[in-house]
Amino acid sequence: AQPVANYKTFKIYRWNPDTPEVKPKMQEYKVDMNQCGGMVLDALIKIKDEQDGSLTFRRSCREGICGSCAMNIDGRNTLACLCKIDAEKASTIKIYPLP
Fold first, then answer.
1. Strand-by-strand arrangement of the 92-96 sheet
2. Nearest in space to 39 (alpha carbons), one of 28, 51, 31, 49
3. What is the 3-state secondary structure (H, E, C) of 27-89?
4. Region of residue 45 (left: phi > 0; alpha: psi -120 to 50; beta: else)
5. Quick count: other Cβ atoms within 10 Å of Cβ 69?
6. Residue/partner pairs of 62-65 with CB below 8 Å, 24 or more apart
7. What's the pLDDT band for 32 if we cut at 50, 70, 90?
8. Of residues 51, 59, 52, 44, the one with CA closest to residue 10
9. CA–CA separation, 71 and 77 (whole Å)
10. What pLDDT, in 10s, does the model give residues 43-87?
11. What's the start-to-end Cα distance of the chain, in Å?
12. How far apart are CA 82 and CA 30, in angstroms?
């Protein structure tokens, strides 16, 4: 038997500097955590690869050294490659660029 899907919702701030007349918005994506690594960066890569190729973000080393993936996750400025997705926490994770 397959494991029951364990979906988390990611609300991601979206804005395109090439279309400044379009206001920024939050966009929702659902990810089955049984099919994804445990870090926020893993989920972002999965969303980009499987749901929305227009999603862009910076990443490089995936080891917390370079700082490329710094963003605001659930109100904390942190690195997406080091930020674990808490299975027990609320099912929605909010992601913004650094202030």
1. 25-32, 7-14, 92-96, 70-73, 76-79
2. 31
3. EEEEEEHHHCCCEHHHHHHHHHHHCCCCCCCCCCCCCCCCCCCEEEECCEEEECCCCECCCCC
4. alpha
5. 22
6. none
7. very high
8. 44
9. 6
10. 999 999 999 999 999 999 989 999 999 999 999 999 999 999 987
11. 45
12. 20
Q: Cα separations (Å) of 55 from 10, 43, 51?
A: 12, 12, 9
Question: Within 13 Å, how many C-alpha atoms sit on residue 80's CB side?
Answer: 25
pLDDT tops 80 at residue 14: yes
Least confident segment among 3-12, 19-28, 36-45, 47-56: 3-12
Place of tokens 């710094």: 70
Fold designation for 7-96: Ubiquitin-like (UB roll) (3.10.20)
Where do the structural domains in the chain lie, given as residue ranges?
A: 7-96
